[in-house]
Amino acid sequence: MLTALKLFLIFIHTFICSIFAMIFSIIDRSHTLYFKLSKYFSGGVLWLSGIKLDITGLENLDKKKTYVFVSNHSSQYDIVVLQKTIPNRMAIIFKKELAKIPFFGWQLVMGPYVMIDRQNYEKALKSIDEAKLKMQKQNISITVFAEGTRSETGEIQPFKRGAFRLATQVSYPIIPTTIVGSNKIMQKGTFKIKKGTIKVHFDKPIETGDNVTRQQEIELMNRVREIIVQNHK
Questions:
Q1: Which of these ranges, 135-139, 172-176, 193-197, 225-229, has the smallest mean pLDDT?
Q2: CATH number of the CATH domain containing 85
Q3: What tens digit of pLDDT does each residue of 97-156 get?
Q4: Residue ranges making up the domain that contains 56
Q5: What count of other Cβ atoms lies within 10 Å of the Cβ of residue 230?
Q6: Which stretch of 46-50, 136-140, 220-224, 226-230 has the lowest confidence by average pLDDT?
Q7: CB 68 within 8 Å of CB 163
Q8: What tens digit of pLDDT does each residue of 66-89 get?
């Protein structure tokens, strides 16, 4: 009964915020209002769910800089957790399936976020180009869930190269971002919400350069994954 009430309140909160997000996306092309609303939305979802945050590593971030945040992914809550905790102007690369969700998905498409089709290589490359333009022209940091999908067990899965291709093309630093405990709040395949604390750690920036070879890109990917694995323990 309690979970049903939480889900109902979260639905209402999401519906109202999504309406405003679509309006803000139309009237404010700088996305300033959208980013402010995302903080309110994510904070509301976490509060209604009874979730607390334990954040470390904020001293490694400069609000005025643009980064590629590379994170692990094991829960639907990971998006709102990063919306709430990342202080920079930030957009998430999200899978196209989310765009089909009424109101919530629509506002993702209308807002600064970047939709990716994981099944279509050419379209995925176009999404990377779109993310690159947002970073270069709008000073928007990009967040990528490097595993490509949620981990059912919470264990770190193999990474995909998209985030690292993006980072090396724009030469912006990567922030290895580790989320711990979100899979215990709501496990994949269920809607049961458990109270708890989610830990988020932002590691030190890793500089990237241009003219990177495929092998160097893979080495960068493995380095970032190892940092996240170690922080996840």
A1: 135-139
A2: 3.40.1130.10
A3: 889 999 999 999 999 998 988 788 788 888 888 888 888 888 899 999 988 777 777 788
A4: 2-232
A5: 12
A6: 136-140
A7: yes
A8: 999 999 998 889 999 999 999 999
Amino acid at 1: M
**Cα distance between the two ends of the chain:** 34
**Residue 62 identity (one-letter amino acid):** D
Phi and psi for 226 in degrees, rounded to 5?
-65, -40
What's the structural domain count of the chain? Answer: 1
CB within 8 Å of 11: residues ≥ 6 apart:
none
135 Cβ contact partners less than 8 Å away, ≥ 6 residues apart? 66, 68, 141, 142, 170, 172
Q: Which two tokens stand for residue 103?
A: 């109101």
pTM above 0.70?
yes
Q: Residues with Cβ < 8 Å from 147, sequence gap 6 or more?
A: 72, 73, 156, 157, 158, 159, 160
- Range from 21-30, 58-67, 138-147 carrying the lowest mean pLDDT: 138-147
